[in-house]
Amino acid sequence: MRFLSHQMTDLQETRKKRKSHFEDIKEVCMAKVHEMTVWARGVIMDKEGRDVINIFAAAAQMEGKFVQAFDNYEDLPDRVLVTVRKYVRLSDEEIEHKYVYTNDQPEVVVITEATIVKGIDILRGMEKGGTLIINTNRSIEEMLKFIPNADLLSTVATVDADAITGVRTIDFSGSEGGVDASGIGKGIAAPIVGAIAKVTGMIKKESLATIVSDVSGMERGYNEVKIKKLG
Questions:
Q1: Which segments of the chain have a pLDDT < 70?
Q2: How far apart are CA 113 and CA 75, in angstroms?
Q3: In this predicted structure, what is the pLDDT of residue 143?
Q4: How many CA atoms, within 13 angstroms, populate the side-chain half-sphere of residue 17?
Q5: CA 123 → CA 37, 119, 133, distances in Å?
């Protein structure tokens, strides 16, 4: 009986090792999907939030990545000043979950207007080790006071996009039949995407420069973003 017990234990250990080995192979074979969530305010900042994800996606696509960029349909139709979310995903391989219209586990969260951090779980779904980028002229330490689950973060960054451009573009290009005639990345989205490139390294500044209308603003965002590593 003792011999049989040892055999069963050895068999269980072997199965565990095989399962672990299979999971390791599966993880290697499945390309990583990077998720970024952008928070904005309805109508008055909807275009800026949309520009951020579209610029990021276009730059990543230029660099040979597979991308998805879309609104959170739960937030639509957007209302003035009410928070709205935009999503972008990128991967080295084709992204399979095409019809999931939320980011379940964002690695990067971008806040286009600083007061959004108050009273909202902006990091929802994020696993430990995430990145937060905020458009604000306040210090990183001051902003962290409003984020109760800041322990999830490994990196926090701030960029004063409003001071860099002084422009927030408003249009109705997200509305049915609307046409965006103002260009992409003409307002605060330009320095914000520059900051994203610097902080995350997911896209190159050179790629952004071929897409944004305000190249100077994008480069200032890249150069002026303040970054703090936590933990």
A1: 1-30, 75-78, 98-99, 167-182, 231
A2: 17
A3: 97
A4: 6
A5: 9, 12, 11
Strand positions, DSSP E, the chain: 33-41, 66-71, 83-91, 108-111, 130-135, 153-159, 226-229
Report whether 34 contacts 92 (CB < 8 A). Answer: no
Q: Tell me the two tokens of residue 119.
A: 């009273």
* Distance separating alpha carbons of residues 28 and 165, to the nearest angstrom: 42
From the list 221, 149, 220, the residue with the least C-alpha distance to 192 is: 221
Tokens 């944004």 map to which residue? Answer: 212
| Residue showing tokens 């071929």 | 210
pLDDT, one tens digit per residue, over 35-59 is 999 999 988 888 899 999 999 999 9
Give the model's pLDDT for residue 42: 86
What kind of fold does domain 32-229 have according to CATH? Pyruvate-ferredoxin Oxidoreductase; domain 3 (3.40.920)
C-beta separation of 161 from 194 below 8 A: no
Domain ranges within the chain, ordered by starting residue: 1-30, 32-229
Q: What was the pLDDT predicted at 181?
A: 66
- Quick check: pTM over 0.85? no
Which of 78, 75, 70, 77 is closest to 44 using CA atoms? 78
